[in-house]
Amino acid sequence: MKKQKGFTLIELLIVVAIIGIIAAIAIPNLLSAIQRAKQKRAMGEVNSLATALQSYATDTNIYPISTGAGPCTAISAAITPDYIKQIPNPDPWNNPYYYQGITSNYAVASFGKDTTPDAWGGVQLTAGDSDLYNQNTSCFECDIIWEGSSFLVSPGGKQVTCK
After folding, report:
1. What's the alpha-carbon Rg for the chain, to the nearest Å?
2. What are the tens digits of pLDDT across the range 125-161?
3. Residue 112: which of 163, 51, 53 has the closest Cα?
4. How far apart, in whole angstroms, are the C-alpha atoms of residue 145 and residue 113?
5. Contact 140/162 with Cβ under 8 angstroms?
6. Domains in the chain: boundaries
7. Could you give the C-alpha distances from 128 to 102, 109, 140, 153, in angstroms and in order?
8. Which end of the chain is more exposed for a tag (fewer CB within 10 A), N or C?
């Protein structure tokens, strides 16, 4: 009788169990890394928009004025292509970036993973109110808001799914 070569059923089950355990550990970390990367991209694009708006204000002495908060595409004619090549659109979650501006101040925002305004509704722009929030958030769903010269609301520390 020939001796047969191959794996036993027990050996195969052990290998499948080990692969399952590794996948159970790796997949949540991968999903979290993807969301962190989206937050960092949104922060970079909001920062780019802010730089373009500050350059515009340096030249004109005012920020583009908006009647309430609206998509950044509304100010596209004012800042493209002289101050920014094109308005980044959409944000990493496929929604537009939002802009609110008065003559002496402005805010730019991405509404995060949940795509709904959390802190934005509380931002009422007046000259020099950039200490309104200045908070780090710990949720992927939270807004990312830049006002004046810094982030009012931005991700900081370990991020989790909150809602």
Report:
1. 23
2. 444 444 445 566 777 778 888 888 888 877 776 666 6
3. 163
4. 14
5. yes
6. 9-160
7. 11, 18, 28, 16
8. N
